[in-house]
Amino acid sequence: MIKELVDAVVQAAGGTSIEALRKACEALIAQLPIEKGTIDAEEARRALNGLRKHRRFVFMRRMAQAFLDDGCRDHQVTRHFAQALIERGETIPAIRILEALIADPAISDYEWGEAKGALGRAWKDRAVRARGKRDDVAREATRASFGHYRDAWVKDPNLTYQGVNHVAIAAWDGGLFLSDDELKGAKAAAGEIFALIEAKPKPELWDYATAGEALVGLGRHDEALKWYSYYAQRNPDVFALAGSVRQLNQLWRAGEHGWGRLILAPLIGMLGDLPGGGFSVPAEALGDLAAVSRAQHQNVLGNVGARSYSWLQEGFKMAQSVAMIHKNGEPHGTGFVVRGSDLAPHLGKELLVITNAHVVSDPPLEKAATPREATVTFEILGRQDKTRRYAVSEIVWQSPPDQHDVSVLRLDEQLPGDVQPLRIASSLPSLQPETPRVYIIGHPSGREVSFSFEDNVLLDYELAIVSSAASQSPCRVHYRAPTEYGSSGSPVFDAAWGVIGVHHAGGRLIPRLNGKREVYDANEGLWIVAIKRAMAASSSPKARGKKAPAQSSSKATGKGKTKS
Fold it and tell me: Would residue 348 be called left, alpha or beta, if left means φ above 0 and alpha means ψ between -120 and 50 degrees?
């Protein structure tokens, strides 16, 4: 019975239906206490490897926890649990688990090396987040990451991915926290790593990416391009691809260089076509990638999908119209540009900015900024003008957080021609037969404008409201996509880059929609067509310069829901 249930998990992990994957995982977890004895370690590994392959880290975390709770004491299962924690941003508990793992005298040499690599990754994530903000944390994390990667490679030079990571950490650090001798040693290691892989009669998949990265560390970019070409042509899975893209972006800043753009663009295109594919990448990097011609794209790494390449370019155009909302000069949320007449005919052709009412409102709702406190910037507005701040002259229309949670802002100056209104989709994607995907562009945690691509499936929406053209009620839309504080007010796009919603909240144990009794982890947006209906039904006194009455609602926000 367990084997069949593991088969179902592995199959669903590579599919497009998150609901099917959820049911498969729940069925396996429910069977564990029924079976005599703990789950066979090989079956547990198979399930977790299948989930990891497609970056299903939410489910990977749950399954690994369930296997450990069931009594499985396998080192690889423990490491996979830590890996899932790292991928979800829970680095501190992951570090503690991995430190205990490498200290276990019974651990195999292979698992020790893999655990050291995972420790290096956890500390690396902490270093990247802390650098320039918490230098004491950044110093500790940089040195710890460098040390774990280097120690694993020194013990066994065949651990080339750990070795090339200590090369990358040294290049990224550039002498900030590491000594000159450590930097020189790392560069020498890059040569040794490449020579070892080049001498192999039959390199494995990871070897091609590792050799390419070692060549980047040596400054031999043309040769690196060739090795990444070999890598892409061998169809790496989504876990491998996302790791390669993250490393090139985070540590090597590849998007800032011509050689890097040639490597990155096709890898990103391949990710967009794979189940579970995705990552978050700064929009400026995507802009640089979009500058790579289609001919270069296909000549360097093969034709991995013209649709994905064109789609990437179109997404970058969308990002030009996404704004950061500031409160008293500090990052506070996200907004996006629409044409007034696309919301309500009487608003004409002027360009307006949509955000959440809990981000900007008058009077301020929750912790919102007032129009006087709020300013708006467009980060990739022709690049030379990205620091220009626009003041908010008034709120044209608003609805409180327990309703449509939206404010439509009029700015005090006309926006330049580079900023085009986003297109509003006339309908929501069908939930059947395949699970559709959604995409979010915003300013997570007040950082540069970024795309959310990971685990980004449309889960559900309120069917009764969607089907009733006369309804003015808010329509909640549930989806999965990486968001953080600061993502509030971000546009939620369908696969054709039409805006379907305004992101406003997310959390754990959110009640499901349409009368379903279960709860789940989800993000929530408000359907933009329902917002249009409410605006059309309103007398729009704010559009005439008067104060709109606050709307009331008896609908509660879901359990565990937080504004984001």
Answer: left
User: Which residues sit opposite 333 in a β-bridge?
Assistant: 325
Write down the pLDDT at residue 474. Answer: 94
Quote the CA–CA distance of 457 and 55 in Å, as a whole number: 13
- What pLDDT shows up at residue 453? 67
Q: Tell which residue, 437, 443, 502, has the closest CA to residue 476.
A: 502
CATH topology of domain 323-411: Thrombin, subunit H (2.40.10)
Report the alpha-carbon distance of residue 59 to residue 259 in Å, rounded.
36
Task: Pick out the chain residues at pLDDT < 70.
Answer: 266, 269-310, 381-387, 433, 453-455, 482, 485-486, 508, 539-564
Q: How far apart are CA 58 and CA 56, in angstroms?
A: 6
- Residue boundaries of the structural domains of the chain: 200-319, 323-411, 439-542+551-563
The residue type found at 197 is I
d(CA 17, CA 25): 13
Q: Residue 539 has what pLDDT?
A: 53
DSSP string, 526-550: EEHHHHHHHHHHS--GGGGTSPPPP
Task: Kindly give, in sequence order, each residue whose CB lies less than 8 Å from that of residue 352, ignoring residues fewer than 6 positions away.
Answer: 337, 338, 339, 340, 343, 396, 408, 409, 410, 411
Instruction: Give the pLDDT of residue 508.
Output: 67
pLDDT tens sequence across 303-344:
333 345 567 778 888 988 999 999 998 899 999 999 999 999
d(CA 368, CA 334): 12
Question: 425 near 497, Cβ under 8 Å?
Answer: no
Helix, strand or coil, per DSSP, at residue 120 = helix
Instruction: Give the contacts of 311 (CB within 8 A, at least 6 positions apart).
Output: 272, 497
Give me the CATH code for the 439-542+551-563 domain, please. 2.40.10
Q: DSSP label at 368?
A: P
Residue 11's beta-bridge partner residues? none
| DSSP β-ladder status, 519-527 and 476-479 | antiparallel
Q: Would you state the structure tokens that stand for residue 491, as one six-digit string?
A: 């546009």
What is the DSSP secondary structure assignment for residue 14, as one 8-state letter?
T
Nearest to 116 by CA among 72, 165, 172: 165
Where does 468-557 show beta strands of DSSP type E? 476-479, 491-493, 499-511, 519-527
Return the SS3 of 533. helix
User: Burial, 556: exposed, middle or buried (Cβ in 10 Å; 0-12, 13-18, 19+)?
Assistant: exposed
Contacts (Cβ under 8 Å, ≥6 apart) of 276: 13, 14, 54, 55, 56, 238, 455
Same fold, 323-411 and 439-542+551-563: yes
